[in-house]
Design brief:
Layout (H helix, E strand, L loop, with lengths): L1 E4 L5 H10 L3 E5 L9 H8 L7 E6 L4 H11 L3 E4 L5 H5 L5 E6 L16 E5 L27 E4 L8 H8 L3 E4 L4 E2 L2 E2 L1 H12 L9
Parallel strand pairs: 1-2, 1-8, 2-3, 3-4, 4-5, 5-6, 6-7, 7-8
Antiparallel strand pairs: 9-10
Length: about 210
């Protein structure tokens, strides 16, 4: 099972997450309390191993701006959290993770039309398009065909509920942000415990 730690804003936390076994690191370039400046993201990504996914999160951003930021900071994937169309996703040069705020299963079938390998299923929208820490009903994913995509499960996950989430949703990857924070800041001990819980043992690597 793969783990993405999203909303990273400093190099020490990024390296600690990777050492704990994270497979992907997320950087928010949209309106958010976790928004990161381009230069800071570039500095962090330069320190990360090549095999780690470096994901930039955008909301209704212009294609040219996404491409510019991705090239500047060194992203490997683009996560789209807004109202982007399948055509918009198709026009990007990097692999796309299309995010969708789940409020029921009525519209899930529409996600099949997106030309991307990954779908991120998040909780209902709050103040921001993502990262609100809201859980949705994972049981609606049972008996789904995964839309022919790799499902990334997000929304309100933490070390206390992630095992249940894995059992019900059976995703390809889990994505956590607020669930590994203390007082609004990433907590490396919570990151470690979350990843250990997901992966079942100590799988971290040593970078230095």
């Amino acid at each position: 099972m793969k783990v993405k730690i999203c909303g990273i804003t400093d190099v020490n936390t990024a390296l600690a997450a990777v050492d704990s076994g994270a497979d992907a690191i997320g950087f928010v370039f949209a309106e958010s309390k976790r928004r990161i400046e381009e230069e800071k993201a570039r500095e962090i990504i330069a320190e990360l191993p090549d095999d780690i996914m470096k994901v930039g999160v955008f909301v209704n951003e212009e294609q040219a701006e996404i491409e510019r930021i991705a090239a500047k900071v060194g992203l490997t994937h683009v996560q789209l959290h807004g109202n982007e169309s399948p055509e918009f996703c198709r026009g990007l040069s990097l692999p796309v993770i299309k995010a969708y705020s789940v409020e029921g299963k009525d519209r899930l079938a529409e996600l099949k039309q997106f030309p991307c390998e990954f779908l991120l299923l998040d909780g209902p929208k709050g103040k921001y398009h993502g990262g609100n820490g809201l859980v949705f009903d994972w049981s609606i994913l049972k008996n789904q065909d995964s839309f022919g995509k790799k499902i990334i499960l997000a929304g309100g996950l933490n070390e206390g509920n992630v095992i249940k989430a894995l059992g019900e949703a059976q995703p390809y990857m889990v994505d956590v942000s607020s669930g590994v924070e203390t007082d609004g800041k990433k907590d490396v001990q919570k990151i470690q415990r979350f990843i250990d819980k997901v992966k079942g043992n100590r799988t971290g690597r040593k970078l230095r």
